[in-house]
Amino acid sequence: MSRKALYLQEPEISTYTSYGCLFSIMSEPLWPWVFNHFIQIRYAKGWKMFAFDNHHMLLKNCPGLSFYQLPQDMVVAKWGKSLKEVIIESIDLGYYLYIFVDRHHISLADSYQNGHNIHDLLIYGYDSDKEMALVADNFEERFIKAECPFSELEEGYWCLPDKYDFWTEIRFLKRHTAVECSINMEQIAAGMENYLYSKPTFDMVEEQQFDFGFQALQRLLPDLQEINSSSSAQFDLRAFHLLYEHKILMEKRLAYLMEYGYMQHDQHLLDTSAVLKHHYLSLRNLVIKYRFKEDEKLLLSIFDKLRENMEQEQLFILSCLEKMKT
Question: What pTM does this model have?
Fold first, then answer.
């Protein structure tokens, strides 16, 4: 077969490539697991980024995926230095590939031939007649499917320095549809409390320092002031898109819990969740607008809207926790 593509749906969540991978591959029975997680937000001081809690472990621990990773020397021992052979054999066996490449060599990327940017990428298929791999990533700041020449992937992968193992390892993912997950209300309530009161997650290995919950989100306010005082400072759009996607999941979570009897129906709470989602979408869109038109009044609007949204959201989370007790 000259062309083969594994299942890939439009992802609900895709701020980062790993989220896009998970949500584009996942099956419907996995939603309870998603609702139990994806509540707490942390800011990684080393990475200088906002993410869902346990960001780097979500793919590896997702019950709807089998996750395997091989170090580069084992890849070379089996396939030699031919990423194309790795891709074709793995896809034929039903495995997606999740790798890092230097986008300097990837023509789909903004940084193509313009600086080096080591970034993750999902490979879900191939077309051997066209010498193309089928890939998905946040190109153009949105998670899209595209074709990428094998030759570009070869260059982008084999040029990676061995500074970090996770850059050169190849991960193999297999989708499972016969998975059973159940809602854990105690875990959801704990997640909301930790988010609201900025309680830390204690990692087995603390590789860097983190801020959690609303304490982490407070970091965005000084960032806005820095942007206002420095022409070289820039917004990280991902932070604002993450907050919007956080509200997408919160709305779906509440609707699910009420529909299946885990919480008493409360239309006011559902409406408030929808309003919050809209407010964070509007905030994200203001940030996008500011990137094209650096207007001080627009910046002040972003600052005020972020502060208002956070205040409203804190009250909303409190209401959710109270409702869960009834």
Answer: 0.94
